[in-house]
Specification:
five-stranded mixed β-sheet, about 20% strand
Amino acid sequence: MLVKLKDVTYLVNDRRERRSDDVNHFVSTENLLSDRRGVSFPASTSPKSKYVHAYTKGDILISNIRPYFKKIWKATFDGTRSADVLCFRSSAKELSQDYLYVLLESESFFNYVTKTAKGTKMPRGDKSAILEFEFNLPSLKIQKEISHQIISIEKKIRLNEQINDNLLELINSIYSARQSSDAKKEKIHISDLFDTSSTTYRINEHSNEFVWHFSIPNFDQQRYPTIDSVKDIKSNKIIVKPFSVLVSKLNPTTRRIWAPSTDSFNKYSKVCSTEFVSISGNDITEQATIFAITRSDDFMKYLSSKATGSTNSRQRVKPIDIYSYTLPISKSTLSQIQKQLALLLQKLQSNQDEIITLIKLKQELLFKYF
């Protein structure tokens, strides 16, 4: 049965008085994550007005600015939201809230909202047009089957992401616990222990090839490279060596440290943006050691102190400063924790591979059903 959103759904416009704890559950266009990845709390801003827009557990929140970013989240608790975040709720017993959620995640819905949006520089969804979106409404039984498949995959993705967050904390904890101010007297630099040389990948010599592309946007989006045609790449890149760690030179206040799995990216060459500095080890234990060093708070603080540039959006660190970092841990102490770090990094890499597999499966199901 073909129906329109306006027949079975409504846009929630609930408001209430602002409370002091709203900052923890405030949803804006800024902390909703692109490509259907949910939300990140807390938001960098919070409402200041006496009355605020509210949402309740189960509501579906979608950023109405630049809808092509596909920012959507199904609320797991009550909270408040920006006026630029739309709030959807089923108004008919024939439409389950879970099915409405996976429908609104679909490519067909976001394409429709983008096509009917108003404005060019910062397009906004047209609320009236959105409610005219037409779709097939199956029986509640089929709705449950479809939504259960997709939501189950999402839960597994979120679980893996949480596990990886815990693994990162554990890596940092193990490394930080062995740091010592006395170790810096040894003056051991990153370049003393690991390979800091790089090889340029010249795109004019490989125009008919494809590559695994480790770019800044790919790191920010899903910590995973894309397979790109060299013809679509505009500038030379750096070849990613086995057991390497990529350290971003750009905006060092943002922690962009990437340790690609050597076994996961085959068939094509692996290249990275020149905004990364590559540091390589000889095996997984050395890769894990580099990863722990470069993710540490001490290293990030050091990078920030070496940044040049007048604005936060374009600050950079020179490669020589990265290579010259003095380790706050002795070489012998590093050797004692390398195996632990390697096991944790391997689990982290394996989980990330599974997350990407699950994301692809979810996208296939969304395409199949909608």
